[in-house]
Amino acid sequence: MAKKNKSKKRQAVKNETVTLDNIERLSDLLGIHQSAAGVSVTKSTAMCVSAVYACVRLISGAIATLPFEVFRKEGSSRKKDASHSLYGILRKQPNPKVSSVVFWETACTHILLQGNSYAIIHRNRQGDPLALTIIDPSRVEVDVKNDRLLYFITLEDGQYLPFDMDDILHIPGIGWNGRKGLSVISSVGQNSIGCAIAADEYAGRFFSNDATPRVI
Question: Domain of life here (predicted)?
Answer without folding.
Answer: Bacteria
